[in-house]
Amino acid sequence: MDAREDCKKAAGVVEPVINRGDCEGKRDCEKVCPYQVFEVRTIDDADFRALSFFARLKVRAHGKLSAYTPRAAACHGCGLCVEACPEDAIRLTAARSPAPSS
Fold it and tell me: How many CB atoms lie within 10 A of CB 14?
């Protein structure tokens, strides 16, 4: 069965939000997302500085990797990423920019 079959919402209705203090960059979200919404890479300096002291220690311990969502508008809200994340660092929220109606 294609994982996309579980994605019932239209693209752009919801978007994944990453808690950078919890994310350990394990790439599970990248692996399960049928729409390639995620990219795991080195955390941006500004995002790193915004973390608490203890979160910065944790992020350093995990190679300063974090998930980002450069293609968040492609999210269909299936929740596979939320289920796959071992740190519970992902939540789905209403998209900031509503999807255009067809």
Answer: 20
